[in-house]
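Contributing: when you submit paired examples, paste them exactly as shown. First protein:
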Amino acid sequence: MANGSPSIRLWHIGTHHVYGIFSDLEGFRTGVAPDGIGIDNEGPDIPDALQTIFFPDQSMVYADFEICPLEPRIEGHMQAACIKSVSHVVVDKF
């Protein structure tokens, strides 16, 4: 989780690249959450294994993520993506 929008961000370890997480392509394009209430990037659909970690506590999570980019990568910019799957999760609560 992060302050600002999108509220969930993934840092690609070993790079300066950051992904801003959305539920899916439609949520990215329209900005509307899948339930029709709220803004998609403030509470995107994420795998259940992460849902219990992120909410309500903030945590640093290390894992193997399979992501789906939702827009082309531009060096120096956050890139919109959604999380397809996650494995090997390690949580560092702060």
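Second protein:
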Amino acid sequence: MPILHSGLLVIVLDIALIVHAARTGRFMPCGDIRLFLPGVGALAYIVVELVPEWFGSRGARRARGRFASALDPGRRYRDLQDQLALVDTIANRSALAEECLALGKFDEALAQYNAILAKPLGDEPGFMLGKARAQLGLNDAAGAVATLDELKRVSPNYETPEGDLVRAIALEGAGRNDEALASYAAASQHFPGVEPSVRLAQLLKRLGRDGEARAVAEDVVRSLRRAPAHVRANERRWLASAEKIAGS
């Protein structure tokens, strides 16, 4: 009997929350989750929707966003599509383009950036960098290099750590290895992370320069082992690659 009562309580709770979600316009995606995952879906709805509403803090809103993204990774993408359909602005297009890059929708990202760059006020350097990133995602390294060369021509003073790294990756992909080595080394001086250094070590190893590759990788490993735990966690992918090269 206690088990039966517990089951009835879960069903009643699910129904109550589904009604609440429908009335407040929150039925998707949480409604479907509750229908197929009784109990678990109700808990997710409470955590994602109700607790942030009750407390309303900035941290709570961020938590809501993270949970919502985990439950429905395409939600922000669809929201941005809807916003662009309502108001076609450069800001809306660039937000959608960035989300496309994050989701690996490189064709769509490239189309959005091309559309932005064709607009009278769309010639911001960051949009050209975004286009190059989309081209890299489509394995068009030569196209990315050409875009970055044009960026350098029209905005010679525009420099960012990300842009330097993207250029190095594009140069490597285009087979311009000497230039890529120099670009990785330069990017590693001010990039907020070890990715350029590890990519430098990987390219050196691929070129048969094992001793140099190992020296770069060992420096990365030493620096990360002295770093705080959260830094090592953020860099775990690159740390693993550096350890592999350092130990080879």
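If you have annotations for the second protein, write them as plain sentences, like these:
The first helix runs from residue 2 to 23.
Confidence is low (pLDDT under 50) at residues 24-35, 54-62.
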